[in-house]
Design a protein that fits this description.
The chain has helices at 9-18, 40-58, 185-191, 196-224, 294-306, 322-325, 337-340, 342-347, 437-462, and strands at 34-38, 62-63, 66-72, 75-99, 103-125, 128-153, 162-172, 176-181, 229-231, 237-240, 248-250, 253-258, 261-264, 288-293, 311-314, 352-359, 364-368, 371-385, 392-409, 413-430, 464-465, 472-482, 485-494. The chain has 499 residues and is an alpha+beta fold. A hairpin with a 5-residue loop joins strand 9 and strand 10 (237-240).
Length: 499
């Protein structure tokens, strides 16, 4: 970042939350896959922390030297004030207001400002010449500042990062009480009231310049390097959280429309077959609301499909126990393949069956108020492997499967668990004569229960990180399923000692 103050957790939070946290623009997208909204409570909390950081930055700001002359009862006195520095800058209250369609205004009230500096004067009348110097202290109370900012979007192709720009600063300082010390300060104290206005105007200008520089240069520089494609599960699976359009300023809230596309590594060029459907967040009084659409889940499946992860050759080696391996046997007991498909049991006794399963397309995700359902289509080839290791083709079938997915929201990750696997199977070719579809459906149910669901649930339980606020911890979070999207409600707590 451009300054030490802007490295503070408060400003980072504003860069990652109030200024976006998450962000890239792809003009091909008409709708976001993820929406993130900061409520009035969230904005107020973030603004309080941000202005605390800005106040620390204003401290030690220097004010340009002041010089001139004033008339006194003893004649004209030339003066110079130098080394003027703000030593205290604090406020009793702060708030933020949303200017719909425009931006935000931070309001700091009951400011207390203290300054220090050096004074020097030169008095000459006839042959009388007096020079002296000393120090002075000044204090201001009953003051206020309003700072207005607007948020935009980096227009560079593929950038999509948020931008921030100050559009106004109104600093209204009360009267400055100045006390001089050292030298013939009694003389200065006689006319110091005539200097108060100049010092106050210079102080107001200096405060606004420093605040606007912190916003335009420091925060702007930080946002320009903000990482918008973030890892969520492993080094290769990432989530593109770029803005699809500038943030939306609405009465009482700010909403960030984010791309919400999963990508492979740093490759954001993968062509997706669909775009996100419109959805609107349900109002909440919690600080942050995040909506994750069906589209975002679908892009995860699309990326994993194109990485070749939805294919597997199921053999007895994938099953952990003798009872589980029994269902792939052609001469086993109970629900074994040889009994379910007798023609295979007769032709290839004492063999095991292998299922080469390959998804024919990306899985589909459907979200409703009742929950989440996953649909997938799989081409399956069945082969028999006798004890001599040879391999014989049996048949081929198309499987259309649906499963429910229970989604849970943990402290830091969104996790899933597949339940209720329902396959529908159609035999497309057979090398062993007529085969009953319902028998193969039983086989696929067993394959799903013993291998497919446990393997997928192992990955789903690792979860996808949904919160990365650094020193800020989500609290009171809850998850809802709405029509076509998941919605997360959460508050945020600042923990300075957290990593």
């Amino acid at each position: 970042m451009g300054s030490e103050a802007l490295k503070s957790p408060a400003i980072c939070f504003c860069c990652l939350v109030i200024f976006g946290t998450l962000l890239d623009a792809a003009t091909a997208l008409n709708e976001p896959g993820i929406r993130l909204r900061l409520s009035e409570r969230g904005l107020s909390y973030a603004a309080t922390l941000a202005v605390d950081a800005l106040a620390r930055k204003v401290r030690d700001t220097t004010i340009p030297d002041q010089s001139g002359n004033v008339k006194t009862s003893v004649g004209k006195v030339d003066y110079e004030l130098s080394g003027i520095t703000i030593k205290r800058f604090s406020f009793s209250s702060s708030s933020v207001s949303v200017n719909p369609g425009v931006g935000l205004t931070w309001m700091l009230r009951d400011l207390e400002v203290a300054i220090q500096g050096n004074w020097r004067y030169n008095y000459k009348r006839g042959f009388i010449r007096i020079r002296d110097h000393g120090t002075f202290d000044g204090s201001v109370a009953q003051s206020a500042i309003d700072v207005s900012v607007t948020l935009g979007m980096d227009a560079a192709p593929g950038a999509g990062r948020p931008t921030i720009r100050s559009v106004g600063c109104d600093c209204r300082l009360g009267a400055i009480a100045i006390q001089l010390g050292g030298g013939a300060s009694w003389l200065y104290n006689a006319f110091v009231g005539q200097l108060e206005g100049n010092i106050r105007r210079a102080l107001q200008d200096a405060v606004c310049r420093r605040i606007r520089r912190a916003v335009d240069e420091d925060a702007g520089s930080s946002l320009s390097s903000l990482q918008v494609v973030v890892p969520v599960a492993d080094d290769d699976l990432r989530l593109d959280l770029g803005l699809v359009e500038p943030p939306r300023f609405q009465p009482g809230s700010v909403e960030f429309p984010l791309k919400g596309q999963f990508v492979h590594g740093d490759d954001v060029t993968l062509g997706y077959p669909s775009t996100a459907d419109p959805f609107q967040l349900v109002d909440s009084d919690q600080m942050v609301t995040i909506g994750i659409s069906e589209y975002t889940l679908k892009t995860a499946g699309y990326v994993l499909f194109h990485r070749g992860l939805f294919r597997h050759n199921l053999t007895s080696a994938d099953l952990s126990s003798t009872s589980e391996r029994n269902f792939l046997s052609t001469s086993g007991t109970g629900l074994c393949f040889g009994r379910l498909v007798p023609a295979v049991g007769r032709r290839y006794p004492n063999a095991t069956v292998e299922l080469e399963m390959t998804a024919t397309g990306p899985p589909d995700a459907l979200i409703s108020a009742k929950g989440v359902r996953i649909r997938a289509s799989v081409s399956t080839t069945f082969r028999a492997r006798p004890s001599d290791g040879s391999l014989f083709y049996l048949l081929a079938a198309d499987v259309s499967a649906t499963a429910g997915m229970t989604v849970t929201l943990g402290e830091s990750a969104l996790r899933g668990n597949l339940t209720g696997f329902v396959p529908a199977i159609v035999v497309t070719d057979s090398g062993v004569g007529s085969v009953d579809d319902s028998a193969l459906q039983t086989v696929m149910k067993l394959a799903a229960r013993l291998f497919v669901a446990p393997r997928l649930n192992e990955a789903l339980q690792k979860g996808v990180a949904w919160s990365s606020f650094g020193k800020f911890r989500p609290a009171n979070h809850r998850l809802e399923t709405q029509s076509q999207f998941l919605q997360i409600h959460t508050d945020v707590i600042y923990e300075p000692g957290a990593e």
